[in-house]
Design a protein that fits this description.
The structure holds 2 protein chains of 2 kinds. Chain A is mostly helical. Helix content of chain A is 62%, strand content 7%. Chain A contains 13 helices and 6 strands. Chain A has helices at residues 5-40, 56-66, 77-96, 131-140, 142-152, 156-187, 192-198, 226-239, 251-254, 264-289, 301-307, 313-343, 351-381, and strands at residues 104-106, 109-111, 114-116, 119-121, 202-207, 210-218. In chain A, the strands form 3 sheets. Chain A has a two-stranded antiparallel ribbon. In chain A, β5 and β6 (210-218) form a beta hairpin. In chain A, α3 (77-96) runs antiparallel to α4 and α6 runs parallel beside α13. The N and C termini of chain A lie far apart (49 Å). Chain B has helices at 5-28, 36-39, 59-89, 93-116. The chains are: A mainly alpha, B mainly alpha. Chains A and B meet through α1, α2, α3, α6 and α10 of A and α1, α3 and α4 of B.
């Protein structure tokens, strides 16, 4: 985590702040979801508490705090209490491994009569070499929280909801994993930072031994993997249990699905997990296909470094990192808005349709996508002489 | 090991955060009635009629088994995808493509057999 006390404490604070960022974006998204759905359905939505209903979030928190602490009779108490905590962990771990901006370079400086050496702080909780694999593995753990909640509640609706949710999550994980194979083939790395670095320039690729350059387009993954992007985004909807794939919470059949027996902050923690997964999905879409935290040709690390040459290196690095972080946030918010808009636009699938779509449509198509990508890459990158 | 220390720290912090929230809620939460029907798990409003261990469709087990088989095959594709470019550079890209093609043939045949044997039908 660090070699001395300064680096150690900054890294620890960073982990807490990034996790809190994820937690704090949830009430905002709930507000956007409620106001947005009201706007789409020609209603008002929450508009009484504070300006535009914004302090509704605070009122909600107070209500969560004063809800009755309820454990149904005959439930497995340990599992019942464990499930909400487990629901928080996968999204937090996955979000922590995604780079939110370029690393901050801090020059050597003197503080409290001591010299503090030059540091490099990556703009993420932890930088792992196996970034993609770690994120996939961590976010797969979400199925455990649903199963624990369903099994621990002593309620058949919860159990059915949990079983449906886990069957759906694992079915769509196949097409998700396969569409990421195409992404790995294109970037040839597991590391997110390297992926973004490859996307920061103009669109340039090798075709049958010739170098092609299209200077007015960014080098984004969406131009190499259009089908993979669509399949991955659809699979993310199923992974996050959002409409049109929200069978685990089908109110007409299952009351509220796996969290029927939960209320107050325990219920809220499931919400944080779900919205955290949406956040991770949006961040992955941005990083894989839409250039991550760079925006060619205006906002790339190189162009910003040139513009900020009058500042000291540490200040320039800080300004660069935070302005690129803003670019990343705008892109992520765009995908989050798509998640919300789709929820209030499309109706729900039937369960057999959902499983058919996953196994018989999306799995073969993502297989085709991976094979075609591999063949084209061998054709394009081989030396034909 | 040093790389995984922040991961452990994050997991610890999330657990403390979650348990703390639940503890706060239990401090300030309203006290409910202690009657028998209040404490019962929700079924439909009246007293529950079905036992806790109600029947579960066997299809879920089948789906889970099929998932494990296919997921392992997909995981084998990850290192291959990463090393394909090195093999192309050393001139054996077409050979690696053929090798993975044989592996994928088994994968596709398995999927075809699964669909044919109606293992994926939900009626």
């Amino acid at each position: 985590m660090g070699s001395d006390i300064f680096e150690f404490s900054i890294n620890g604070l960073k982990i807490i702040i990034i996790f809190m960022m994820m937690v704090q974006i949830v009430p905002l998204l709930v507000w956007v979801e409620r106001r947005g759905s009201a706007y789409i359905q020609n209603r008002f939505g929450p508009n009484r508490v504070g300006p535009l209903g914004l302090t509704q979030l605070l009122a909600d928190a107070v209500k969560f705090l004063t809800k009755e602490e309820f454990v149904p009779q005959g439930s497995y108490k340990f599992f019942f209490y464990l499930a909400p905590v487990v629901a928080l962990i996968p999204a937090a771990l996955a979000f922590g491994a995604i780079p939110l901006s370029i690393p901050i370079q801090v020059e050597a400086f003197t503080m409290m009569g001591r010299n503090w050496g030059p540091y490099t702080f990556p703009f993420q909780s932890f930088e792992l070499g196996l970034g993609v694999v770690f994120v996939l593995g961590a976010s797969s753990l979400a199925a455990y929280a649903l199963l624990l909640a369903g099994y621990g509640s002593n309620n058949k609706y919860s159990l059915f909801g949990a079983l449906r949710a886990s069957a759906q999550t694992i079915s769509y994980e196949l097409s998700m994993g396969l569409s990421i194979v195409g992404v790995l083939l294109v970037y040839n790395t597991f590391n997110f930072t390297e992926m973004v670095a490859q996307q920061s320039g103009p669109l340039a690729f090798k075709f049958l031994g010739n170098d092609l350059l299209i200077s007015w387009l960014p080098n984004w993954g969406i131009f190499y993997q259009p089908l993979g992007a669509i399949l991955l985004f659809a699979a993310f909807f199923a992974e996050t249990n959002r409409l049109p794939f929200d069978l685990p919470e089908a109110e007409g059949e299952l009351v509220a699905g796996y969290h029927t027996e939960y209320g107050g902050f325990k219920m809220n923690m499931f919400y944080i997990g779900e919205y955290g997964h949406m956040l991770v999905a949006s961040a992955l879409m941005t990083t894989f296909f839409f250039g991550g935290y760079t925006l060619y040709p205006w906002l790339t690390p190189e162009s910003l470094n040139q513009a900020l040459s009058s500042f000291s290196p540490t200040q320039a690095s800080l300004i660069t990192a935070f302005s690129l972080h803003l670019v990343f946030l705008v892109k992520v918010l765009f995908f989050l808005w798509i998640f919300i808009h789709v929820r209030w636009t499309l109706p729900r699938f039937r369960y057999d349709q959902l499983m058919d779509l996953g196994w018989k449509t999306m799995l073969p198509w993502s297989l085709v996508n991976a094979i075609v990508t591999a063949v084209i890459i061998v054709l394009m990158r081989s030396h034909w002489s | 090991m040093n790389q995984l220390l922040p991961v452990a720290f994050l997991i610890l912090f999330v657990i403390i955060f979650g348990v703390g929230l639940m503890y706060l809620a239990s401090l300030f939460g309203a006290k409910g009635s202690k009657s028998k029907s209040h404490l019962e798990a929700y079924e439909c409003g009246v007293q529950a009629t079905e036992a806790k261990t109600s029947k579960v469709s066997i299809k879920f087990y089948l789906t889970a088994i099929l998932f494990i088989l296919f997921d392992i095959e997909i995981i084998f594709m990850y290192p291959w995808a990463l090393s394909l470019n090195d093999f192309i550079a050393s001139g054996s890209g077409v050979y690696m493509l053929g090798a993975m093609g044989f592996f994928l043939f088994i994968f596709i045949f398995g999927l075809y057999w699964e669909v044919k044997s109606r293992a994926l039908e939900w009626e």
